[in-house]
Amino acid sequence: MSAAATLAARLTGFAAVTCDVFDTAIRRRLARPEDVHLVTGARLAAAGLTTLGPAAFQAARIAAEAAMRAEAAARGEDEPGIAEVYAHLAACAVVSDAAAAARVELAAEMAVCEAVPEMRAALAGRDVLFVSDNILPGDWIAELLVSCLYPGDARAISSADTRASKHSGRMYPLVMAQVAKPAVHIGDNPHSDEVQARAAGLATIAVPRRLFAPEDAEIAALDWPARLLHSHRRVMGATGLHRYATLLAIGWTLDILATARARGVRRIYFGARDGWLPWQIARRILSRSGEAIETRYLALSRRGMEAPLARNYLAQEGLGDAGPHILVDVGWRGSIQAAIGGEVFGCYLGLLPEALRPGITPATTHCALFSFGHPAPLMDRVMDGYALPELLFSAPQGSVTGYERRDGRIEPLFADDDPTRAAAFAAIAEGVMAEFDALDTMLAGAWGAISATTMLHDVLPLLTKPDLAAVRTINAIPFINGPHGAGHLPAINRMPWHELLLHPGRALRRARDCPWRAGWVRLHLPWPLPGMDYPDFAHRTRRLGLRPDA
Q1: 330-338 LR contacts (CB < 8 Å, sep 24+)
Q2: Phi-psi region of 319 (alpha: psi -120 to 50; beta: other; left: phi over 0)
Q3: Helix (H) or strand (E) holding 20
Q4: Other CB atoms within 10 Å distance of the CB of residue 245
Q5: Domains assigned to the chain
Q6: pLDDT value, residue 403
Q7: Which of 15, 54, 370, 376 is geometrically suited to a Cys-Cys bond with 350, CB 3.0 to 4.6 A?
Q8: Which of 372, 366, 370 lies closest to 262, judged by CA?
């Protein structure tokens, strides 16, 4: 028997049902209730109703509710109302229109909440009164329930209406006066929904409480979009390689779009294959905003640039049109931008010092993480595992091998991709886009900038001290281009133990030249040795007198 059917059977014989709202009838897709205020703050800022950023608004909103709760207690009331909270915020110049801002909070709740499906199914067709300890009035809670696909005639009463709460027990006599007898109450709070409900004469059904780990201190120090993402992840239990990529992909895309706006650019070319994920995200952002910025996926590669018809393809795609245009590429040396030439401005994750040359300069490029080697600490971290961004941003199709004329157009030719490789890329892209879409729906497109430090936060463990399971998972994907385009290789070329012992110099060269140095170290060091990043490993080997050229 399903959970919904089991619950429905337990309701048999009761003339009416009273039901708690949050975490019983509906649930937030965020681990902490206060994280809804990040969403509200972002929406308020986008609407011009506050000058505070989302994190600052969250702090002000929490403080305002605490102040109004203290005033309510002094009057002998259990709960303030949301109108009082926003009137206080308006008096403190946090919001410019109290009533409009309060409605934005309701819209934010609607965006982050969903029905508990088994509860909605079990309650279908029954006489239900929803009861909640909440500063939202009952009619707003009814709107919220309807937005979560409960019936349009849903009835709700809140402690903001009665100024008496379930927690104190003073709400239940008022509830009992509105329902038929016998009645049963459903809820997740052992005190408010069980002890106090039974004391008022209600039968009770307890549902499990949702308890999530508190916000990690490292996460709390990041930009607010990262805090929102991680709050969402604690609810969803995110697994898969995409969790290393989402923050970096969203942050980089926002940086690209900000650069385009600042420069007045109206066309952005997202280069194959590294530009696939930013292209998908940018299209969604621009579709919502309605901005007149065109995006194109440019099927181009270093190998493809040497193919016949490559220049014709570039002309067909408008690279000869009056610019400037933006070309998006992961980066490192800027070779594609240099080969295209003309009025093309490059947007990269990073460029190495050797990328600097006529045409590829600070005036013709913008980098999200590091530019021509600065800041060096960020560059060093990324370049210790430079293959990882290339993996995480790879499109789920083969690389460009050339072009052909077809139906009056020049179409790119893609290599047949290894099934394991293609499936891994598709799974990463699907996971990233699912997380982006969830947050974009909550925010209604009201995104904020993400700093370089925050962008790198999720992928940093892979770049420094990855766990063995992650190394093995990633190394099973043949994603490194082989020499002269001959097939694909894993990131780490595993050395047998006897080679490590007999040829330590060769092993050190392998580690130094590996496109994922920390992964090489983690894969080769035996379990009892301490976990270490590549710089620590290199330092220890030098202290032992070992050198890569030995």
Answers
A1: 330/274, 330/389, 330/390, 330/393, 331/355, 331/367, 332/386, 334/360, 334/365, 335/302, 336/271, 336/300, 336/301, 336/302, 336/305, 337/364, 337/365
A2: alpha
A3: strand 16-20
A4: 23
A5: 3-206 (no CATH), 244-443 (3.40.50), 485-543 (no CATH)
A6: 92
A7: 370
A8: 366
* CA 450/CA 100 separation, integer angstroms: 28
Predicted confidence at residue 539, as pLDDT, reads 78
Residue 87: CB atoms within 10 A of its CB come to 17
Residue type, 126: R
Cα-Cα-Cα-Cα dihedral sign, residues 47, 431, 464, 252: negative
Distance, CA of 148 to CA of 61 (rounded, Å): 25
pLDDT score for 324: 85
How far is it, in rounded angstroms, from Cα 118 to Cα 113? 15
Q: Which residue has the tokens 């207690």?
A: 73
Q: Is 150 left (phi over 0), alpha (psi -120 to 50) or beta?
A: beta
Residue 94, pLDDT score: 98
d(CA 256, CA 268): 9
Q: How many helices (H) and strands (E) does the chain have?
A: 27, 16
Sequence-distant (≥ 6) Cβ neighbours of residue 407 within 8 angstroms: none
What is the spatial distance between Cα 344 and Cα 334, in angstroms, rounded to a whole number? 11
CB of 187 within 8 A of CB of 202?
A: no
* Per-residue CA distances from 546 to 187, 464, 503, 505, 527 (Å): 65, 22, 11, 7, 21
The amino acid at 150? Y
> What is the CB neighbour count within 10 angstroms for residue 502?
10
Bridging pattern class, strands 400-406 and 409-414: antiparallel
Measure the CA–CA gap between 372 and 145, rounded to whole angstroms: 53
CB neighbours of residue 22 within 10 Å: 20
Residue with tokens 């909270």: 85
CA distance 81 to 332: 55
**Cα maximum dimension of the chain:** 87
Ranges in the chain, pLDDT < 70: 482-487, 527-530, 549-550
Q: Which residue shows structure tokens 């990463």?
A: 428
3-state secondary structure 100-142: HHHHHHHHHHHHHEEECHHHHHHHCCCCEEEEECCCCCHHHHH
Residue 257's contacts (CB-CB under 8 Å, 6 or more residues apart) are 282, 285, 286, 293
Q: How far apart are CA 196 and CA 31, in angstroms?
A: 26
Note whether 519 and 385 are within 8 A (CB).
Answer: yes
What digits encode the pLDDT tens for the residues 175-189?
Answer: 999 999 999 999 999
Give me the helices (H) in 344-467, please: 376-383, 387-392, 419-443, 452-456, 460-464
